Amino acid sequence: MTAVLACQGVRKVFGSSVVLDGLDLEVAEHEVVALIGASGSGKSTLLRCVNLLEELDDGTIHLDGSHITDPRVNPDLVRRKIGIVFQSYNLFPHLSVLDNITLAPVRVHKRSVSSARAQALELLTRIGLADKASAYPDRLSGGQQQRVAIVRALVNAPRLLLLDEVTSALDPELVGEVLDLISDLKRDGMTMVLATHEMNFARQVADRVCFLDGGRIVEQGPPSQVLDAPVEPRTQQFLRRLAPA
Amino acid sequence: MTRSDTAFTPSAVQLDRVAWRRRQTIRSILVAALSTAVLGALLVFAVTGAPGWDRVRQSFLDPSIAADALPDVLRGLWLNIRLLVFCALGSLGLGLVIALLRTLRGPVFFPVRALAVSYTYTFRGLPLIIVIYVLTLGVPGLRLQGMPSVLVLGGAALVLTYSGYLAEVFRAGIESVHPSQVAAARSLGLTYRQAMRHVVLPQAVRRVAPPLLNDTVALQKDVGLVSLAGPIDAVRAAQISTAEHFNYTPYIVAGVLFVLLAIPLIAVTDWVTLRAARRQAGR
Ligand SMILES: Nc1ncnc2c1ncn2[C@@H]1O[C@H](COP(=O)(O)OP(=O)(O)OP(=O)(O)O)[C@@H](O)[C@H]1O
Ligand SMILES: [Mg+2]
To answer: Which residues form the ABC transporter domain (chain A) (predicted)?
Structure first.
């Protein structure tokens, strides 16, 4: 079975700083991978590269076995198979919650408005936000906005969902509702790669934790191994600095 | 969920607050009315008491001459209105197209971008009067087949100039939409054009609606310049009538009509601006 996502020797340079330096990562179907690492270690950059929002400086990325970083590939077609949710929600402020969610199904996938709306309402009901369907994003709390952003990425039925620190802009009380939604997605078998600063979150949902440093994955394995018994000195140092003394 | 408000009785403190606010409102209205009356009386006194007032009244505010000039000025105003509608729509459309051409990326579009840039530079720099002269006096000299009327050529001159301004307003709006909005749209699989059409433009246009309307108010006054090439607009009609009567009253008539015509447009502009400000504050 081929991996859903396969990154080989991915290199990304901004000016004189090498952010990703020959990074390898494979993600199997239904697997949830958490990327951890210091601020600036390139977690967001990697996710943006996978979604073709950044151009690689070397290496390849394959999605379901097909090479997506070939310049002859139409990035719009690739992005339709990948969902991404940003730290800052990025909902469209001029569209209602329902229109935010149905924009891509209607315009990109040419679904009928009524069936897209029905599906969106069903998803909103699942996350308890059906009564906000016609509200505008600025009337929603941060946690509600972030859950809408996740649902918006889901209606495209992506093969792979990328989540970039989806809880770090939220108040602690609101984090729970977003984590619950992501746990639900994991149960449904969604393949996910998520960047996070919250080790508890990584521990709860991830099958595998990858520690990024110096542009590569320095250490990876099940959360219990990487987070509780790291072998690499750099991982130990990173986790020690996070842990309250 | 929010609880319903049916069983709520306000406390004594709240009732007192409401009553006090009501008294304050009434006081403000009374003060405003009084100060307006005082200022108005002073103004009337100063103007009518001036030594030259009688002569000014005769040459600027003669009711019989006003009545005489009104039909001609109104006929001229009708031309202004038709030109305004045509030119406003034309320059909004052309301005938007030029702004969009300027945002195109990629080497293929280099000449298009360069053309759009030089367009906005040229027509914002060129005095409107010169554009009107060139189009209405110069172009007919070519004696081409099917040459449009001077009126259409004059309107085209206005559209050329104003779309240069409006293109820059649109571009400012497009650039004010944060790049993360485009990233979010593209990541959902929307193409560049779809992202522009459904995500960027609606937000951009909403943001620049006040300046766009403001330019339309300015256009309303500039459309009269086509009379330089012959067609008779309201101001030109007033000028003719002034020369006939040796009296300036027709200008006042035209001025009042222009203000009346502008009031709805300006009111809409203020309302849109206010609404935009409220929306900004709402987040
Ligand atoms: N567009 C860009 N231009 C220049 N430098 C960039 C750009 N985007 C990211 N960088 C740099 O790349 C490095 C990695 O950034 P990235 O956002 O991927 O880190 P991160 O691991 O997501 O950090 P954080 O945990 O703070 O989100 C940083 O040093 C950043 O300054
Ligand atoms: Mg980041």
So the answer is: 5-239
Backbone angles phi, psi at A219, to 5 degrees: -150, 140
Q: How many domains does chain B have?
A: 1
Lowest-pLDDT range of A22-26, A180-184, B279-283: B279-283
Whole-number pLDDT of residue A210: 94
ipTM of the complex: 0.82
Strand order in the sheet with A82-85: A82-85, A160-164, A192-195, A32-36, A208-213, A216-221
User: Which amino acid makes up residue B176?
Assistant: S
Residue A1 has what pLDDT?
61
Token digits of residue B66: 């006003």
Which of A93, A139, A100, A140 is CA-nearest to residue A120?
Answer: A100
What residue segments make up the domains of chain A, in order of their start? 5-242
pLDDT in tens, A167-210: 877 777 778 888 888 888 999 999 999 999 888 888 888 999 99
Contact A92 B188 (CB under 8 A): no
Interchain contact, A84 vs B190, CB within 8 Å: no
CATH number at residue B140: 1.10.3720.10
Instruction: Tell me how far apart the alpha carbons of residues A23 and A40 are, in angstroms, rounded to a whole number.
Output: 15
CA distance A86 to chain B (A): 8
A191 C-alpha to ligand 1 centroid (Å): 24
Atom of ligand 1 nearest to the CA of A35: 21
Residue B180: give the domain boundaries: 64-278
Mean pLDDT of B244-249: 84
Which of B177, B181, B187, B194 should one mutate to test binding to chain A, selecting the residue with the greatest count of A CBs within 10 A?
Answer: B187
User: For residue A51, what is the nearest residue in chain B, using CA coordinates?
Assistant: B187
User: Is B121 contained in some domain?
Assistant: yes
State residue A161 phi and psi, 5-degree precision. -115, 125
pLDDT tens string B131-148: 999 988 888 777 777 777
Could you tell me which residue, B115 or A245, shows the higher pLDDT? B115
Name residues contacting ligand 1 (CB within 6 A). A 14, 17, 19, 37, 39-45, 165, 195
Residue B36 lies in a domain: no
Q: Is the pLDDT of residue B4 over 80?
A: no
Identify the CATH class of A5-242.
alpha beta
Residue nearest to atom 7 of ligand 1 (CA): A14
HSE, CB side, 13 Å, CA atoms: give it for residue B273: 11
Report which ligand 1 atom has the smallest distance to the Cα of A38. 25
B9 domain-assigned: no
In a domain, B16, yes or no: no
